Amino acid sequence: MSWHRGRVKRPPPPFLALVAAAAQQGMSRGASPASGLRRPAAVAVATASVAIAGGAASRFRAVRTTVEPFDPSKASSLVVTGPNSRTRNPMYLGMAGVLVANALRRGSWTGVLPIVGFVAVIDRFQVAAEERALAEKFGAAYTTYCASVPRWLGPRTFTG
Fold it and tell me: What is the DSSP string of 24-89?
């Protein structure tokens, strides 16, 4: 379904991250409190994650384009600098990173499962739809961007 012909109803990504955090809490009841190196590691991961997401949001505001994930047709500029020069989805990566920090803080391996679910849902439903809309709107510039910057981290994964 095209973004221009009708909106697909999806829960907001921050809401999905909160659901994943609540699931982490439920799945890690009885886990030992953060101690030793877990606490500073969790703080470092959370700080880096918030910086990545916040840096991307700041870049979007600086070029006066939307951060609204439900209608990419409102995008007025293709942001390819700052955190977006390393990952095409720094805001979602930041949310996932905060969930990683929470799992680390809680000391629960089962707390990783909601992170996997969050990333899978965001990647399959939100990111895929955004990529189609951005490719339609920005054409060759977006294709070139996708060829040089990975969807998350690591190898390039544009399925256009």
Answer: HHHHTTTPPPP-TTHHHHHHHHHHHHHHHHHHHHHHHHHTT----TT-GGG--S---SGGGGT-S-
Total number of domains in the chain = 1
Quote the domain boundaries for residue 133.
13-25+36-148
> Measured in whole angstroms, how far is the alpha carbon of residue 62 from the centre of its chain?
20
Count of CB atoms within 10 A of residue 160's CB? 11
Regions in the chain scoring below 50 on pLDDT: 1-6
Question: What is the Cα–Cα distance from 82 to 11, expressed in whole angstroms?
Answer: 27
Q: pTM to 2 decimals?
A: 0.87
